[in-house]
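Reminder: ligand-aware prediction takes two inputs, not one.
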Amino acid sequence: MKFEDMSIQDILKGYREKNFSAREVTQSYIEKISKYDSDVNAFISINEDGAIRAADRIDNKIAKGEDIGLLGGIPVALKDNISTRGLKTTCASKILENYIPPYDATIVKKLNDSGAIIIGKTNMDEFAMGSSTENSAYKKTRNPWNLECVPGGSSGGSAAAVAAGFAPLAIGSDTGGSIRQPASFCGIVGLKPTYGLVSRFGLIAFASSLDQMGPLTKNVKDCALSLQAIQGEDKMDSTSYKGTITENYVENIDEGISGLKIGVPKEFFQNGINNEIYESVYNSIRLLEKLGATVEEFSFPATESGLSAYYIISSAEASSNLARYDGIRYGHRTDEYESIEDLIVKTRTEGFGQEVKRRIMLGTYVLSSGYYDAYYKKAMELKNKINLTFKDALSKYDILLSPTSPILPFPIGEKTANPLEMYLSDIYTVNINIAGLPAISIPCGFSSSRLPIGLHLIGNHFQEKKLLQAAFSLEQELGLDSRIPKF
Ligand code: GLN
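Here is what comes back for the chain with glutamine:
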């Protein structure tokens, strides 16, 4: 088997059995990236020297018989909004074009401590705003399953990197679906953990009450192992979960789902869902029943209003978070200016792309006096309603199930002129961020045009283990893990 086809578990087994070295693995991934990333555009920058040095350190440990860590010798691609000390972190924005963070995000520290090897930084929608990775200031990432289609977004570079076999693990961020929707579009597994389970320290903020980072992998077991490495309390993030998670996500992952109660929000299967997605997800529902789960429909009336609430809340928070890019403290500064105000206005006009400007304007509008009650306050009321609907559903069911997105990966350029249509691709994912719940997308089939289809499982707060067990059972039954397209 080639390294690019291997799962994290396969690579770790190879190290244990001394079949190959971390340097060989890392070099092979770097070679594949240099050969094929010009087709896919998954990466903004490659950490070639750093990765080889890290691989050598792992090989030294292996030679000495020392513990290499949970992810020892596993190459990982990081979304370019995750701060990496000494490595450019651009957020795919011109405003951070040459920004080199002076510190590592907590997740980066944890990955380093567990022996993972940072192989590069991946492309994304600017400041994670988008659903197709077309909003990057640098390049458009292509879907490895069909290079004419988008990989989804905003973590499109991370998803494409795993799908193309450029890395066995990538980290993305998910504010309204940006791990799960690209995972679904690229035929891989993507998990958004419970809000607070993974420290956000060092993740460049988009909407702080919704942002959460998580793994993108070829299969569910790899996802479980990666989550184990990155979770945990962090004093640098006041919203991180205070307490110790004793759960081992990999252990008993194959326990099965006999007796599991699954709820299906019926509104998630109406209005504009693609027929093949509908069929494919229902096929999985039947498989879950065969495996011993009971499946029942319930009503989720706030489906569409959730999207409106999400765009109001996320834009409001973004308008405040992005105020710091003023040409004085970070990144780009305009060349000529006449006053401080002129400096700020010109810097921001030049530095931000169209979608980011749209969100900042929307955000300042909904927060401004006179409109606050009409928009922001209403969005907060909707948030309460959404929370209650989930609370009620999750008191009856162990897990909720839906498609990840109502649409298939679409051709590059098809939706760029119509932001509302683009926003609709996240209709099933945004509510989960509003409620802070964990959710995973796993591949559940292919369309007649050979495009991947994703299935979305949602759990209760901190019930990642149950979620992963259900996802694992279904994955085994479907036999869709560890596939990568040949291109
Ligand atoms: N696509 C959604 C948006 O544009 C979600 C983005 C995200 O999760 N980062 O806001």
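DSSP finds 15 helices and eleven strands in the chain. The mean pLDDT is 96. We will return to this case in the review session.
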